[in-house]
Amino acid sequence: MRSARICGIVTVLVLTACSVETTSEVPVSPIPGSPQVTESELSSSIPVVESATPDLSLTSEPSLTPDSSEPCLERHGIVESFSISKREQEITGQIYTPPCYTGNQDHRYPSLYLLHGATETDQQWEELGVFDIADELISSGEIPPLIIILPREKSWISLPDNPFGNQLIKDLLTWVDGEYRTSTAREHRAIGGLSRGGNWAVRLGLLYWGQFGSIGAHSTPLFVGDLELLSGWIETIPVSKIPRIYLDIGRHDKDLTKSSAFEEELIKLNIPHSWHLFPGTHNESYWQEHLKEYLLWYSSGWSELQ
Q1: Rg of the Cα trace of the chain?
Q2: What confidence score (pLDDT) does residue 31 get?
Q3: Structural domain of 96
Q4: Does residue 64 lie in a domain region?
Q5: Do residues 203 and 165 lie in contact, with contact meaning Cβ atoms separated by under 8 Å?
Q6: Number of compact structural domains in the chain
Q7: Which parts of 219-292 are beta strand (E)?
Q8: What is the C-alpha separation between 200 and 116, in angstroms, rounded?
Q9: What is the pLDDT of residue 115?
């Protein structure tokens, strides 16, 4: 565990409201220090968000992450808990800010939204070690400093009655960009998740492509019916704006057939993506083993910020 960790609580009231061998190949961005493979996947039926039309108003601000004139001597970021209330609905979770965030008032940072699996909480990614790995990679200069948001899904009800997607897009995204020094350019905002969290990441990342430049789906089967909706979602996205997509799953994962079907559909649609089939199954040991690679991939889209 980390040798130093500063934690806090933020409460806000919003009045308004697995070794790898693969086959298919589509152009992808290489991941530093990781094996290259190929592409693919996606699915779910009833739209969970109210509109598939992205609100580009949040993406117009240019990114500002200048080189610091003085080196950062801190080695650990800060983690805060947050709670946002709106119309009797509450969003909770954790936010990680990188070393020297407090002292670099003129910097803006890329952001990464990581979603947990079914019956888990925002602590799942923390327990896997995401904050410690982020500290390590930032300190070594392998990735640029970033802000990591871990929202908690509190209900497992089916779509379209589940409010989590709308809460994340309409409430949490706006709050984070207002309270933290994020770059609001879509290229500097990524969304990813494991298992059920990956289902959400694919759905929201494609429906709201104007907000996210990268989508990570780790051991992701997709929501029921979303695979059939995939082509329609893709058709609405300009070719130059299709998000970067990363898929990975264990060779013995119970959802391998579903994940492979997603990957095959991406190939059929000629959508660039990175597909990784590793040894392993559907559990914390698998995700923890590949956590460093995940962060390297997300951050490879922000290489100009290093």
Answers
A1: 18
A2: 41
A3: 18-57+72-305
A4: no
A5: yes
A6: 1
A7: 244-250, 274-278
A8: 10
A9: 98
Strands 89-97 and 111-115, sheet pairing: unpaired
Backbone angles phi, psi at 115, to 5 degrees: -110, 140
**Would you tell me how many other CB atoms lie within 10 Å of the CB of residue 7?**
9
Report pLDDT for 7. Answer: 56
Residue ranges in the chain modelled with pLDDT below 70: 1-69, 87, 306
4 in any annotated domain? no
Nearest CA among 305, 11, 5 for reference residue 179: 11
Q: Could you tell me where the DSSP H helices lie in 112-216?
A: 123-128, 130-139, 164-166, 173-179, 196-207
Residue 92's SS3 state is strand
The verdict on residue 78 lying in a domain is: yes
Query: Could you give the angle at which helices 256-268 and 226-235 cross, rounded to 10 degrees?
Result: 20
Q: Alpha-carbon distance 54 to 57, whole Å?
A: 9
Q: What is the pLDDT of residue 8?
A: 59
Nearest to 296 by CA among 158, 100, 185, 136: 136
Whole-number pLDDT of residue 111: 98
Asked if residue 6 belongs to a domain, the reply is: no
pLDDT at 104: 86
Strand partners, 93: 82, 151
Two tokens, residue 68? 């610091």
**What whole-number distance in Å separates Cα of residue 115 and Cα of residue 2?**
22
- Residue 195, by phi and psi: left (phi above 0), alpha (psi -120 to 50) or beta? left
Domain of 229, CATH number, reads 3.40.50.1820
